[in-house]
Amino acid sequence: MEEKLVQRLESAVARLEALSTGFRPGGSGESLDDAASDPAIAAFDDMMRQYVGRVSGAAEKIGGQVLEVTKVVEQAFGVQRELLIQVKHTKKPDIAGLAEFLKPLNEVITKATAMTEGRRSDFFNHLKAAADSLSALAWIAFTGKDCGMSMPIAHVEESWQMAEFYSNKILVEYKSKDTNHIEWAKALKELYLPGLRDYVKGHHPLGPVWNPAGKTATSAPTKASTPKAPGPPPPPPASLFSSESSQPSSSGPKQGMSAVFQEINSGKPVTSGLRKVTDDMKTKNRADRSGHVGIGEKESRTSSSSFSKAGPPKLELQMGRKWVVENQTGKKNLVIDDCDAKQSVYIYGCKDSVLQIQGKVNNITIDKCTKMGVVFMDVVAACEIVNCNGVEVQCQGSAPTISVDNTAGCQLYLSKDSLGTSITTAKSSEINVMTPGAEPDGDWGEHALPQQYIHIFKDGHFETTPVSHSGG
To answer: Residue 242: how many CB atoms within 10 A of its CB?
Structure first.
C-alpha cells in the first residue's frame, strides 16, 4: 500500500517537473537554466512542487473526474509560469495586447469551466471548486490601481472565496465517508491560501514587473511544438476581462446590428437598395390575406412554441445508490419509500410537482426545478437547492446542512429536530424559513433570511451587516 502511494506521488511530481520545465519562452532568448536561476521563477517552482503536488497526490487516490480537473489545474499553473517568464522580456501592453498575452491562461480556465457545464455529476462540487479557484491566477492581469481589479494579494484571496463555497460542501459530504476527498479539498485551499497568496506577496505584491525595453506583448506559446495552421476560432469564452480584442475585426465583414450602424455611418443612402411597396402589395388591400387568425393556425403556433426538449420523466434507483427524479411535471404524488442512509436523491428539471422521501438518505440535491415541493425525513450530509425558482422544502427530521444557491423564492420548513441546521445561501433571494411554534398546535414562525447587506469600511477593513426591516 505504501509503495503504491509513493509511486503515485512520484508520478505527480514528475508531471509537475515536466510542466515547470517543458515551456520555452518564445523568442525571449532566455534558457531554461536562466529561468530556473531567477528567484521569482524558482519560488514559483517550489510552490508548485509543494502545493500542487499535494493536490495531485490526493487526486490520484480518487481518480475519475477529480483527477481530470486536477490535471487542468496543474496545466493552468504551468501556463502561468511561462507567462511570468514572458513578462520579464515584454513591454507593458495595452488592454488589447494584455488580452492576447493572457489568451493561453484564459483557454485553460475555459477548459476547466466547461467541465462543470451540462448534467451535474457526482463530483460537481469538486469540478466547481477547482474551476472557480483558477480565477485567482488572473492576478497577473493587474496593471495598476486604475485597471478595475483588486490588488494581486487581495484578488487571490477574493477568488478563493468563490471556490470555498463548493469546497466546504465537499468537507461536509465526505466528513465521515472518504478521507481522500477531505485531503483533496484541504490541499486545494492550501494551494491558494497560503501557497499562491504568499508567493504573490513575496514577489509580485504590486503586480508583474514588465520590461520597458522589451518586446511587444504577444500570445505566449502553451507548449514547445511545431507551429500549426490556425484552426477556426472557438466560441467566445468568458474571458479574464473584457477588452477590445474580443470585438470583430474591422477588416472582416460585420454582421447583425454592427453592419447596420456601419452602413448608417458610411454616408451612403441607406434606402437605395429597398424596393417600393405598391398599394396592391399592402396586406389591407390583398384579398387572400386578412387580420383574422384561424383556430387551427393558433393551435399549431401554441403547440410548436410549447415544445420542450426535456427528456422523458424518470423516477428510478440507479446502481443501487442514487435515486433520480427527472422531468416530472404536474405530479403531486411522487414517493420514494424504499431508501437507506447510503443512497442519495437527485431531483432535476421538475415542475409543479411534489415528492415525498420516506426514510433517511445521505444527500438530497434539487436542481433546476420550478414550483417543486419536497418533503423528507432525515438527511445524513446535506440538502442542496440549486438554480431553482419557487420551491418549498420541508424537513420532518434532522439535516445538518441546507444550502441554497442561485435560487429565487424558497420556503424552508424545519422541524424541532432540525432547528440546529446550518443554512448557507449564495446568489439567492426571497428565502423564508418556517419554524414550529412553542406549543404543539401553535402558529409557525416565519423568518426571512437577509438578501441585502451594508458594507462599511472601518479600522482598515469592511464590516458587513445584513439590512434589517422593521415591517412597519
So the answer is: 12
CB 361 within 8 A of CB 344: yes
Please say whether the beta carbons of 102 and 118 come within 8 A.
no
User: Is-contact 73 192, C-beta < 8 A?
Assistant: no
Output Rg (C-alpha) for the chain, integer angstroms.
28
Q: How far is CA 345 from CA 112, 143, 229, in A?
A: 26, 47, 48
The per-residue b/e assignment along 150-161, b for 16 or more CB within 10 angstroms, e otherwise, is: eebbebbbebbe
Count other Cβ atoms within 10 Å, centred on residue 396: 17
Cis peptide before 152 (omega within 30 of 0): no
Tens digits of residue pLDDT in 330-353: 999 999 988 998 899 999 999 999
Close Cβ partners of 138 (under 8 Å, ≥ 6 residues apart): 102, 105, 149, 155, 159, 240, 241
Cβ burial 53-75 (10 Å sphere, 16+ → b, else e)? bbbbbbbbbbeebbbbbbbbbbb
C-alpha cell at 240: 479574464
Say how far apart CA 83 and CA 92 lie, in whole Å: 13
Are the CB atoms for 370 and 389 separated by under 8 Å? yes
- How far, in whole angstroms, is CA 314 from its chain's centroid? 27
Give the model confidence (pLDDT) of 58-71 as tens digits.
999 988 989 999 99
